[in-house]
Amino acid sequence: MMLAANKITLLTFIQILITGSRSISITNNTFLPGVLNRARTTEILFPTEPACDGTRPVLCVGCRTVKICVGLPEPNNPTQLCPTESPYCHSETGACSFIPDNSQADCSNVPPPSSPLLFYCMGEGFYPDPYSCSSYYYCEGESVPGDLYQCPPGYKYNSKARLCQRVPAHCKPELCGELDCTPTAATFKPYPLDDKYYYYCEYDSNDPTAAPRILMIACDDGASFDQNLSRCVFRCPREGLFAKSSNRNKYYQCYRANRRLVYAELSCPVPTQVFDDVKKVCVTGT
């Protein structure tokens, strides 16, 4: 629990730094950080929560929520949501499971999840949830499950600000829509709400009826996905040298050719060196 608290505090600090550089105001609650693994208020709990009686270490108090019996008396025992990879609490054991427990009233209409819906990171950083406008993920690296953050009710995730943005009551929220996984000639498709991201629909070759898993991919900072070229294209802000965010050993050289700003992607001469974006030179990696 302490680790999660430290993580969200760090993320909040990072997000405020980022938005501060973009002159985005967060003082009027227009923008807020999400809550790790959904807030308890988003879960429908049992009308009368089962009480810890010393016979079991954990109890189900909702379809996705468990109570950790660390001591008596009630109500000092904490609750937490099951993790993304096993999101449902099994009432007989109190263990989190991949399959919903249909004996619970609030789970009876929940379809069993399929593994393609699990979010796996394609790199470090923030990623919009391909299945929901009101949540996002933070990834600590590549090929690991992401940490899910949930926006408050009435908010949607703004990937440019990397914060949850309040949707005014008099405005219709911008529709996310489901991402298009219809088989086409295009292998990669742009994320419609932010051209920094694009996605790939991964199909199960052993089960053609299974829903595809959507893999979200981010371009480098300062780059956007070009569907015609089917790759990320760096946008030179001006002439000069600029770091490549996904690979610290590389950098972009922006210069003018035929009155246009173009770029070349270059590498530091030594593999262990990194490009210092302040000094604009390659230095020994740290």
From TrEMBL:
It holds the Pfam family CBM_14. Keywords: Signal. Residues 118-173 form the Chitin-binding type-2 domain. The keyword Signal applies. Residues 1-23 form the signal peptide. SMART domains: ChtBD2. InterPro entries: Chitin-bd_dom, Chitin-bd_dom_sf. The keyword Signal applies. This is Chitin-binding type-2 domain-containing protein.
